[in-house]
Amino acid sequence: MTGKSKSNSTVDVVLIGAGIMSATLGVLLKELQPDLSIEIFERLDVAAAESSDAWNNAGTGHSAFCELNYTPQLPDGSVETKKAVSIAESFEVSKQFWSFLVRNKIVDSPETFIKSIPHISFVWGDENVEFLRERYNNLQKSDLFKGMTFSEDPKELASWMPLVMNERDPKEKVAGTKMELGTDVNFGALTRMMFNYLQKKENVSMHFDHEVRKLKQNDGLWEVKVKNETTGKKRVVKAKFVFIGAGGGSLPLLEKAGIPEGNGFGGFPVSGQWLKCVNPEVIERHNAKVYGKASVGAPPMSVPHLDTRMIDGKKALLFGPYAGFSTRFLKHGSLLDLPLSIKINNIRPMISAGLDNLQLTKYLIDQVRQSPEDRMVALREYLPTAKMEDWELETAGQRVQVIKKDEKHGGVLEFGTEVVTAADGSIAALLGASPGASTAVSIMITLMERCFSDQIKTEDWQKKLKSMIPSYGQPLNGNAQLTEEIRIQTTHALSLKTA
């Protein structure tokens, strides 16, 4: 049955998209101000089914311990660590918030969503070994990387990752770094637990199979037009604040909102695939996240890694991701997503970014054309004894990299996340991908500082924020004692192994 109902509700907050970002913001706001009314709309029939799902994530537990794309090598040969330090600090903020959730029974036992697992960087060849050594030396200047180990000894590396070193050429020059403090996070499980908590709170409504069709500001309120995809009914919800946290679907909704701050933004979709191990013996013999260097021209989400994960309570082993191209902005999206996102205000930035990234386009074309044998060649660089019958191809999620205006180049392709907020703070959208989920708490705090600027300065909110995030308002980098104290607390609360 189809139909249309007039608006009969006004709420404080509307969250669009049931992923880790909306869940994090919803819990933060509800803890800070319990009387807030919140409505959540998700176009699919379950939470965390797109970018937050474990099979769709390009990486879990991003803390910059092993991801080499966060420490780029500059033209002079030096290694830049600023981004890695920032991400590592943001991840510590996330762990503090998750510890609060566990202590206060907001989420179930921590082992259901987070596990301790070593993070390893692994490279081969003279130049790459020198790069990794330089990276290691520079990261030692930060308290956040205390405990990292560097080795060029094949025997020691074999003790870290037996399968990776098994039957490797003994003459090959190799090196690795290891952080025992690393973790694996199932963001799908965490997201669903947070939404389960929110749905039990007063003045919170969650709607699945609901798609937001229009956004329009009128008399200081946002009119959010929503369609129930099951019944066909439409209604309008008025909201004081709207958060667009719909992953790859955020850009089209930001364009519909029509705020000046959203002009000039475009999106470049990148799809992915995994090789999933189906041999239990192989899965059991590997216990680490092993990251290498990306191919020239590869986007950050395509940094190759041999990745141990816990998915649906079972240990899994993935390799990839292999990049691809689709015009969809979501795994369950439309092939028209990309063409329909092109507007007069963003066509120049998108063309400019495309011309500046022809190497990326070539890389994606080559990836799409790969045969199963080609994928095995890439896997055997990390797992020399890999057998084709032990691995199956699994479709991963979609990522939409941000394209934004740039005075000098016309448009640039960004590989991080971007929070776009209206001048009046009444609406915000999160665009982009990596590192995304791992830094969700820091991103949402930044959003609240922009959109709830008066409330966040109050003594009540400040006190509550510090109870949720003990380091709130203090930098961890450069403060060895505070970093150690925080890590002891979160390691205990999250039942992680002591580093």
TrEMBL record:
Belongs to the MQO family. This is Probable malate:quinone oxidoreductase. Keywords: FAD, Flavoprotein, Membrane, Oxidoreductase, Transmembrane, Transmembrane helix, Tricarboxylic acid cycle. GO terms for biological process: tricarboxylic acid cycle. Its EC number is 1.1.5.4. Its cofactor is FAD. Pathway: Carbohydrate metabolism; tricarboxylic acid cycle; oxaloacetate from (S)-malate (quinone route): step 1/1. The gene is mqo. SUPFAM superfamilies: FAD/NAD(P)-binding domain. The lineage of its organism: Bacteria, Pseudomonadati, Bacteroidota, Sphingobacteriia, Sphingobacteriales. It comes from Pedobacter ginsengisoli. It catalyses: (S)-malate + a quinone = a quinol + oxaloacetate.
